[in-house]
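To: structure desk
From: M.T.
Subject: fold request, one chain
Message: Could you run this one when you get a chance? Sequence is below, nothing fancy, just the single chain.
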Amino acid sequence: MAKGMAVAVAFLSLATAFFTATAAATGAPWSPRPEADLVTGLPGQPPVGFKHYAGYVDVGSGGGKALFYWFVEAEREPEKKPLLLWLNGGPGCSSVAYGAAQELGPFLVRSYGTNLTLNAYSWNKAVNLLFLETPVGVGFSYTNRTSDLRRLGDRVTAQGSYSFLLNWLNKFPEFKSRDFYIAGESYAGHYVPQLAELIYEGNKGASRDRVINIKGFMIGNAVLNDATDQLGMVEYAWSHAIISDELYSAVRRECDSFKEAADGGRPGKGCSPALRAFLGAYDDIDIYSIYTPTCLSPSPSPAGAGATPRRPSRLVAAPRLFSKHDAWHRMKRVPAGYDPCTEAYVTKYFNRGDVQRALHANRTGLPYPYSPCSEVIRKWNDSPATVLPILKKLMGAGLRVWVYSGDTDGRVPVTSTRYSINAMGLRPREMKRRSAATGAEAEWGGWRAWYYRQQVAGWAVEYEEGLTLVTVRGAGHQVPLFAPERSLSMLYHFLRGQALPASRSS
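Reply: Done. Structure tokens follow.
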């Protein structure tokens, strides 16, 4: 017994010395991880050499309101890698169901079966990766007060996410001084900069223990500015031969949102039928990925732990959406996410009891099935028409800002993103390039191709004010799903603050 005790003491001393050295190397105090949140046996998970944790962080008094998270350590040397928070949009869609399980997490749900697929291009190769289901009512995040669900909007979401981060960092204090980034897509074009602004302002008066070391953020196919987003959506559909000249003219004439903003006007009486016809043009294709097949296989109902793939365009076009509110304003509130059969696979997987137990999820016994986009959030109280002033403010504060766009998305298309960025009046950084025809060097402006494995991966432009705009060639709304290798390469360059490769030999 004495010998065993001596061995245990020696082991404890070695462990303490190791963690003390690690803390000294990283500049952060070490403390034990929340072992109750450690995921030890996720059904169907392939063996991996990193740890992952999942569970709840309270964001309200009395423990009646909590947000669900899934945290995945970096694949190698997590003590040296930054922390990145990923947010999906909607409003009301889950970062676990989309970002983690379909796009950039290490374990992808690719079938109705029990096995998970190991993602060779998971973003935890570059960062410690944190997924958050926000606000309450999304995924496994919950509130015990139904009145909370009627108060939701951009402001409440940002405040809840900020409170979550501060409390999560108390659970994982070794990350308090670590470089921190935020990334997201779609309506996270609101969530991400709004949260970044709260962090930036909160840091000003915070004690050292509550400062979050934010360095920048990256948003993809992002909702940024209503007027230009809407114009770009219509022009994209017309330029890609999805709608007719006549319908294009009718939508522009009856629903000219930038005309409304300029002169205080209202949509014409023909706006609602024009929009129904516009969205009806997407009935037989995927608005989020216009060149890929749609899901044709039936699946079980949500009550049976599955889901029939939703048609977001049909949801948007439902007549009730146009009864009391401006049609365009309602359009941007529809849950956005890529929707072939993957959504049904994910719904079935996260409704399984063994999966929920492994993830320490659904601790309150939610009275509704898990859904990738919330079915209980019925009201969204505030959504500013633009977040461009926030982008400019945070760029001016020195944060790194990248905006990227998969160029086969029809819902928040590259035309919308370009119009929105142009509305900021930024100055492109001129680049000298050699003409393939003459061999002469010339300044051709900032717009250029970027390369991955000697092929054009997309196009990019860097601006003097600190923003980088990137397109991803052939990718839909969920860029990491369609272009996993290129999205990971883009992430590495973003983290390093490096320009994307400008030639085949880069």
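Reply (cont.): The CA atoms of residues 225 and 386 lie 4 Å apart. Let me know if you need anything else for the meeting.
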